[in-house]
């Protein structure tokens, strides 16, 4: 999960891109970057950290030009992002291109070998985004006439990218001397929207991961970019679009609606907030069927993502809804923090219980999902420490039993609490008196209810069905091996830091 922006403006782009990254900060907290284009010159600044920490006044002053792209990133391998893997990436052959990418290429290793052996291109990092950039650059090269581009050549290059790349990818790229290119994978797994702003000097266009960025920056929402579609905006504001795949179908990632996206975003015509209300209704109906004998005094959400679902659940069951936890907003989201130890350490720094809402009560805690279970276990214990008599736990999403390979940091089955366990075993693991999960059919119905035209979703973390059709047991084993290797490196680095501190 990452956040991307692409902008063609009539005024300096740096502040708009910075403000847009702030709005998309929830999509990645490990690294941030902005690249602007002034004439034929790219200006780039990127580094590890939050947006507010990466960019200082001196950096902003150096980001010249009225066009650019921006990126916030978190790693999909479970460890801290290397400095040289922060985005955007740049290549200067055969054209000057900067690129930012949200998603994960499932055939990145194969492509990397092809690039080196067949295309004579060098990839310098372990990032699949750099792989994707070089694939795009090569496709532009072989489709161009005498190294000059036109709109149809650019779209032909995107068609070539779709032929070669598998997995999930939403992309923004700036081509020096030509304009802004944006495209989305043929399955539409990761979101991408485009908006317009009419000014006295002409039209401005903004491409973003979520519609909330358009709203905040004053752009009018035009539409979602379709699966397989490419959008190209010239620097003078001329907009061109073309479908670049004959195999495109819309299968948005359902976890975007459960957790990843901001509630005030609309993705593929579906209000994220509305879906979370519906999730609460379906979960309440299941509680009526399955837990009719259980006495619940109060419904308490785990802030912040689960609040709409918990509120609607409480309303439907005629139960009191209370805020029982206060969130420290200066602590990062634990789900996307690298490393299990850091997640566990951060929970009590992030949340604090309001004792009066728990003491002597049978409490129903509602969360958006349960992934590793570490946070859930700590929260249940916090409720007990605050005096709760009984603690029940409800998840607005089904059990997460399978690794995600399309850009979400949960690739290891061994870290998923639901893998190999039934509900009773999970309940014991987190220390609750009862646990109930949303049914997958109900989750899909909750999302489809907000847009009945969408009936199929990328839901592999719940059902193990990988929409790209290329995920094998061997592929998952390779991911696990790389993840474990990364953990070993992290442990060695931490030991070195500890020894240095002692000295």
- Gyration radius, in Å: 23 Å
Overall, the morphology is: globular
Number of helices: 16
Sheet of most strands: 7 strands, antiparallel
Average pLDDT, to the nearest integer? 91
Q: Walk across the major sheet and give the strand order.
A: 3-2-4-1-10-9-11
Oligomer: single chain
Number of strands: 21
Approximate helicity band: 25-40%
- The CA-CA distance between the termini, in Å, is 39 Å
Strand content: 15-25%
Q: Which residues sit in consecutive blocks of at least 5 with pLDDT less than 50? A: 333-337, 488-503
Description:
- With 503 residues, the protein is α+β, with helices and mostly antiparallel strands.
- It has 16 helices and 21 strands.
- Strands 3-2-4-1-10-9-11 form a seven-stranded antiparallel beta sheet, with helices on one face.
Give the gist of this structure.
With 503 residues, the protein is α+β, with helices and mostly antiparallel strands.
Provide the fold topology.
Blueprint: E1 3-8, H1 14-23, E2 31-38, E3 41-48, H2 51-54, H3 57-62, E4 67-73, E5 89-91, E6 97-105, H4 108-117, H5 128-143, H6 151-164, E7 167-175, E8 179-184, E9 193-199, E10 202-208, H7 211-217, E11 220-224, E12 229-234, E13 239-243, H8 255-260, E14 266-267, E15 270-271, H9 272-290, E16 298-301, H10 307-317, E17 325-327, H11 340-350, E18 351-353, E19 362-367, H12 374-385, E20 390-395, H13 423-430, E21 434-437, H14 440-450, H15 460-463, H16 473-502
Parallel strand pairs: 16-19, 19-20, 20-21
Antiparallel strand pairs: 1-4, 1-10, 2-3, 2-4, 5-6, 6-7, 7-8, 8-12, 9-10, 9-11, 12-13, 14-15, 17-18
Helix pairs in contact: 1-7, 4-5, 5-6, 9-10, 9-14, 11-12
């Amino acid at each position: 999960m990452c956040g991307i922006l692409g902008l063609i403006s009539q005024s300096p782009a740096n502040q708009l891109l910075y403000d847009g990254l702030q709005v998309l900060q929830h999509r990645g907290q490990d690294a941030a970057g902005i690249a602007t284009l002034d004439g034929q010159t790219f200006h780039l600044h990127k580094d590890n950290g939050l947006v507010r920490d990466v960019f200082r006044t001196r950096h902003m002053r150096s980001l010249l030009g009225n066009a650019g792209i921006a990126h916030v990133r978190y790693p999909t391998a479970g460890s801290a992002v290397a400095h040289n893997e922060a985005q955007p990436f740049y290549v200067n052959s055969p054209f000057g291109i900067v690129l930012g990418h949200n998603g994960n290429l499932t055939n990145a290793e194969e492509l990397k070998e092809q690039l080196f052996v067949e295309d004579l291109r060098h990839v310098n990092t372990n990032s699949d985004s750099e792989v994707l950039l070089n694939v795009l650059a090569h496709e532009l090269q072989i489709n161009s006439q005498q190294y000059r581009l036109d709109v149809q050549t650019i779209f032909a290059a995107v068609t070539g990218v779709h032929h070669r790349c598998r997995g999930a990818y939403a992309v923004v790229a700036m081509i020096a001397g030509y304009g802004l290119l944006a495209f989305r994978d043929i399955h539409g797994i990761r979101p991408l929207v485009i908006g317009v702003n009419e000014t006295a000097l002409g039209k401005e266009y903004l491409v973003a991961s979520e519609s909330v960025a358009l709203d905040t920056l004053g752009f009018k929402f035009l539409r979602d970019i379709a699966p397989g579609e490419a959008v190209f905006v010239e620097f003078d504001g001329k907009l061109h679009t073309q479908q670049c795949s004959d195999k495109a179908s819309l299968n948005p990632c359902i976890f975007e609606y459960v957790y990843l996206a901001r509630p005030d975003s609309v993705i593929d015509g579906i209000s994220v907030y509305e879906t979370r209300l519906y999730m609460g209704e379906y979960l309440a109906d299941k509680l009526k069927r399955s837990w009719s004998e259980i006495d619940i005094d109060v419904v308490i959400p785990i802030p912040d993502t689960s609040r709409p679902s918990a509120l609607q659940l409480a309303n439907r069951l005629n139960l009191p809804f209370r805020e029982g936890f206060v969130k420290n907003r200066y602590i990062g989201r634990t789900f996307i923090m690298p490393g299990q130890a850091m997640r566990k350490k951060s929970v009590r720094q992030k949340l604090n219980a309001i004792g009066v809402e728990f003491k002597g009560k049978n409490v129903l805690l509602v969360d958006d999902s349960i992934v590793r279970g570490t946070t859930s276990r700590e929260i249940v214990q916090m409720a007990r420490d605050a005096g709760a008599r009984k603690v029940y736990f409800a998840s607005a999403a089904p059990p997460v039993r399978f690794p995600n390979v399309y850009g979400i940091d949960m690739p290891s089955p061994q870290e998923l609490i639901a893998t190999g366990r039934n509900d009773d075993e999970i309940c014991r693991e987190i220390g609750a008196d009862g646990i109930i999960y949303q049914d997958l059919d109900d989750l899909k119905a909750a999302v489809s209810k907000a847009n009945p035209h969408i009936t199929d979703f990328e839901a592999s973390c719940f059902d193990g069905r990988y929409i790209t059709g290329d995920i094998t047991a061997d592929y998952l084993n390779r991911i696990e091996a790389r993840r474990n290797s990364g953990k070993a490196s992290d442990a060695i680095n931490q030991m070195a830091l500890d020894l240095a501190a002692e000295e």
